[in-house]
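thread: overnight batch results

M.L. [08:02]
morning all. the overnight job finished for the chain we discussed friday. pasting input first so we're all looking at the same thing
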Amino acid sequence: MSDHVPNEARVIPLRPAAARTPNTAGAAASARNPATADVPVRTPREPWPLHAPRPVPAGPPAKEPLWRDLVGDVLRRERLAQERTLKDVADAARISMPYLSELERGRKEASSEVLAAAARALGLGLDDLLSLAQRELTRRPAPGTVSGRGRSAPTSRHDGMCIAA
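M.L. [08:03]
and the structure it wrote out:
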C-alpha cells in the first residue's frame, strides 16, 4: 500500500532533491506535513532596481510608411479620380475584386505583374504608378523629423527614393 495520509495533499516534487534550495518556511511546514518539508517556497519577483529608472515610452514610435500602403493609396486615389468602381477596375485588370480591395488597403504585397495589370486598367503604366507612389513617399514627413523641417535640401532632382521599373 501507500504511506499517504488520508485528507492530506500529496506533493510530488518536480526537481531532484539536489536542485532544491533550502528555505526557512520548510522547517515549519515539515512539522505539519513531512511530505512538504523540502519543497521550496516561491518568492515574488524582485522589484525594478531603484538605481535604474524604468524606461518611460515617449509615445508611439513613428513608423516608416510601407510600400504596399503607398501603392494602395495611389491605386485607390486614381480609381476614385476616374469615378470607377472596384468591380470595373478589377475586371479590366483581370484580378478579383476582393484582391484589388486588399491591394488598395495595403493588406497585400502585389507582384509586379499584378501591379502592372492594375495600372493598365487605370490607364497608367507601371512606371507611372511607381512614380506616383514615390512622390507620395517623399511628400510624407520622415519619422523623427518635425513637419519635414529636419530634412536637408535636396541635392538632386529626386528628393527621396527613386525606383526604376
